[in-house]
UniProtKB/TrEMBL annotation:
Pfam families assigned to the protein according to its UniProt record, in alphabetical order: adh_short_C2
Annotated InterPro entries: NAD(P)-bd_dom_sf (IPR036291), Sc_DH/Rdtase_CS (IPR020904), SDR_fam (IPR002347)
Protein species of origin: Thermothelomyces thermophilus (strain ATCC 42464 / BCRC 31852 / DSM 1799) (Sporotrichum thermophile)
Domain of life: Eukaryota
CDD domains, per the entry: SDR_c
Keywords: NADP, Oxidoreductase
A GO molecular function held by the record: oxidoreductase activity
Recorded family membership: Belongs to the short-chain dehydrogenases/reductases (SDR) family.
UniProt name for this protein: Uncharacterized protein
Length: 294
């Protein structure tokens, strides 16, 4: 009888339809996306540009102050997903004029900006804090934190103008922070400070954008094998100790750029329409508890 009742419920017309927040089909269909820090071959930026292109973006901007690989990345995306417009920009993510220019270009060409993935970053000096120069400290803050402030400052108003085909704008600003910005760690003081600033900024900006339809989230990777960390992995391989990397992680390994890119895709898509002002740790569980050794 219970089985029958459930069957009746399922086929009955009294069951309200699920309120679908995102259309079926390509996950970022028609969206115009800016990705910074996109040059690195192993990097999170390039992997994310692939995710956005694969899942239906109309245009992807590949931006980086090092443009040595940008044209090659563009050709690759063009060959894999020919319908996507790819633009490359040599640009310093902490230069306000450059940030404004790329946002203005998106608005001029497409009349919209949907996703700004502020991902460019550098790692600070790995020295005891007493040995770090003030200039080096400020440089890390400039690249890692000021860049996110500028991205939000210029992307948010542009996203609010993105209302041609939508009742409300649905912009998403994603800033790459780090688990180093969430917890203390033995790494670099300027780096941790710069990433904590990104987390706090994402939360504050999310509140200040209340009611505008623009969401802001910080993405906090754990240890990922990219251009930034290649030196760690290469040295460990040379020593034969690479098997030890990630041993304290519950998943017993470091992460891949694509594993961060897939979360960036989710945060940039309307599927995450109720995710706002959050710091998303994507670290295999490392920051969930106290690492232990068995
Ligand atoms: P990566 O070095 O492979 O890529 C970083 C990219 O940023 C490079 O292409 C670099 O040229 C670019 N860049 C640096 N300064 C710039 C500037 N001023 N303007 C424009 N572009 C600039 O490293 P990644 O790991 O892919 O780094 C992406 C983001 O992820 C960074 O913000 C980094 O701090 C963060 N992150 C990385 C890890 C990790 O383990 N790899 C962990 C946590 C957070």
């Amino acid at each position: 009888r219970r089985v029958e009742a459930i069957g009746n419920q399922l086929s009955g017309s009294s069951i309200p339809a699920i309120h679908k927040v995102a259309p079926s089909g390509p996950r970022v269909a028609g969206k115009v996306v800016i990705v910074t820090g996109a040059n690195s071959v192993l990097g999170i930026g390039r992997a994310s540009a692939h995710q956005f292109a694969e899942h239906g973006a109309r245009a992807v901007y590949l931006c980086d102050y090092d443009d040595s690989n940008l044209e090659a990345h563009k050709r690759e995306i063009n060959s894999l997903w020919p319908k996507v417009d790819v633009h490359t920009r040599k640009f310093d993510a902490a230069d306000e004029k450059a940030v404004k220019e790329v946002v203005d270009d998106a608005l001029a060409r497409y009349g919209r900006l949907d996703v700004f993935f502020a991902n460019a970053g550098i790692v600070g000096p790995h020295a005891v804090f007493t040995d770090i120069d003030a200039d080096d400290f400020m440089n890390v803050l400039r690249v890692n934190s000021l860049s996110v402030f500028l991205a939000a400052k210029h992307a948010a108003p542009a996203m609010q103008k993105t209302s041609a085909d939508k009742p409300k704008p649905s912009g998403s600003i994603i800033a790459t922070a780090s688990v180093a910005g969430l917890r203390s760690n033995a790494g670099s003081t300027p780096y941790s400070a710069s990433k904590a600033a990104v987390v706090s900024m994402a939360q504050t900006v999310a509140y200040q954008l209340a009611g505008t339809g623009v969401r802001v989230n910080a993405l906090c990777p754990g240890l990922i094998e990219t251009g930034m960390t290649a030196v760690v992995f290469d040295a460990a391989r040379a020593r034969g100790t690479d098997g030890k990397i990630g041993q304290l992680n519950p998943l017993k390994r470091a992460g891949h750029a694509d594993e961060i890119a897939r979360v960036a895709l989710f945060l940039g898509s309307d599927e995450s329409s109720y995710v706002n002002g959050q710091a998303w740790a994507v670290d295999g569980g490392l920051s969930a508890g106290h690492p232990y050794v068995r």
